[in-house]
Design a protein that fits this description.
about 425 residues, Rossmann fold, 2 domains, 4-stranded parallel sheet, elongated
């Protein structure tokens, strides 16, 4: 450790020169950590004095034109730098305070370097999977993020679902009756929408990084890109649903009793419900678990499998064809997030799918069949058509992403940010 002492005096004054020489001579044998820097009164401004660990005035400046120097001495003393006025070498207590100040300065410099390194690490470009693997990453952070998110979701269940079971007339155990009741549908959609704040709070508490990175590598929702994705997905998905309508010879059924209220609730809250599922399963889950893996590609593969399994399990169906349909959504969402660096494309696909299916179920009847539960069953034809449609829409959005500079060239090259 080097202790820097400013010796303020008159270089033409023999007494000052002798005092400085004696201080240097004494420190060579007993205090080699001391550095003596001679300064004239003209050089002793506040900015320069703040760079030293102690200020030694060989004589206190008394003249009227030395007012700036006196103010500088008072200012640096107020900042914690020891100041002494002595015609001879400074006393021991002054040197001791200088050493304490030097230690404080060195700690401050080390802390500033650490913060600068953290900021540089924060600016390092990363894939979507590694957005939470920043300079403050530790192995336990994903577990903390998950625990916090689960607590928030527990609060959301208490707020949205429990009151219906205790005080309402809605049968919360019967899915068909639950979704056909306006309050039931509203509560269900709001509960799933609460996955958004639960994920954001979990990531923020767990990783101490900006939780908005879950939306994109730019740290925000790219609304313009989301709009383009909706324009691409909507007509293609309408064609897909129309084809399935004719292939499976579906007919027009009776509308639910409260279909108008259900339609309004669907239009207002289903986009939030679909976005909530994407933020949780293709966002927080992928970034949280992906942080465990040094290789981003390995993180993508593991989280894609995990996201697919949990997304299918959350819908409650063990039918293999239903799992394939849900899995195609999950795989497409993870791949789109990897290539475009965000959830916008996956959210657009999920929102359009849910709005069109639930809207047609309300207007043409059969809403209760629009939901996947433990009794849902698919077929090889329906699963195959779903996989082809999902792959087609995914390819179309990736083509547009490359055209608009959202996704880089190369079919598996990830977007960075």
């Amino acid at each position: 450790m080097t202790v820097r002492i400013a010796a303020v005096g008159n270089p033409g004054n023999p007494a000052h020169q002798e005092a400085l020489g004696r201080a240097r001579s004494l420190s060579q044998g007993t205090a080699p950590d001391l550095e003596w820097w001679p300064l004239t009164l003209a050089e002793a401004d506040e900015q320069r004095l703040l760079a030293f660990d102690g200020v030694w005035f060989m004589a206190w400046p008394e003249s009227a034109d030395a007012e700036p120097v006196r103010r500088a001495g008072w200012a640096v003393q107020h900042q914690g730098i020891p100041v002494v006025v002595s015609p001879t070498e400074p006393p021991g207590w002054f040197v001791g305070q200088g050493r304490a100040r030097a230690a404080y300065r060195i700690r401050g410099e080390a802390e500033r370097q650490r913060i600068a390194a953290l900021e540089e690490g924060e600016r390092e470009p990363r894939t979507y999977v590694h957005q939470m693997r920043g300079p403050r990453y530790r192995w336990w952070r994903p577990l903390l993020a998950l625990a916090v998110a689960m607590v928030v979701m527990l609060v959301a269940v208490v707020v949205t679902i429990v009151p219906l079971g205790l005080f309402g007339d809605v049968d919360v155990e019967n899915l068909d009756a639950f979704v056909l009741d306006p309050l039931g549908m509203l509560s269900n959609n709001l509960l799933l929408a609460s996955l958004i704040p639960a994920t954001l709070i979990g990531l923020w508490v767990g990783f101490r990084r900006s939780p908005w990175r879950v939306f994109s590598v730019e740290g925000r929702m790219r609304w313009g890109w989301l709009g383009w994705c909706l324009l691409v997905v909507t007509p293609l998905w309408l064609v897909y649903l129309a084809v399935t309508w004719f292939v499976f010879e579906q007919g027009v059924l009776d509308r639910p009793e409260h279909w108008v209220a259900l339609l309004v609730i669907t239009l207002l809250t289903t986009p939030l419900q679909a976005a909530g599922e994407e933020v949780a399963f293709r966002g927080g889950l992928v970034q949280g678990v992906g942080a465990w893996f040094r290789s981003p590609m390995l993180g993508l593969i593991v989280t894609m499998v995990l996201s697919t399994a949990l997304f299918a399990a959350a819908h409650g169906s063990a039918d293999p064809w239903i799992i394939i349909e849900l899995g195609s959504f999950a795989v497409a969402g993870c791949w789109l997030a990897w290539r475009t660096g965000g959830l916008e494309a996956a959210i657009a696909l999920h929102v359009v799918n849910n709005l069109l299916i639930m809207g047609s179920g309300l207007l043409l009847g059969g809403l209760e069949e629009s939901f996947v539960d433990g009794a849902s069953a698919g077929s090889p034809v329906s699963a195959g058509m779903n996989v082809v449609a999902t792959a087609t829409v995914t390819a179309a959005m990736l083509w547009l992403a490359r055209r608009r500079g959202i996704a880089p060239a190369g079919w598996r090259t990830p977007a960075l940010g």
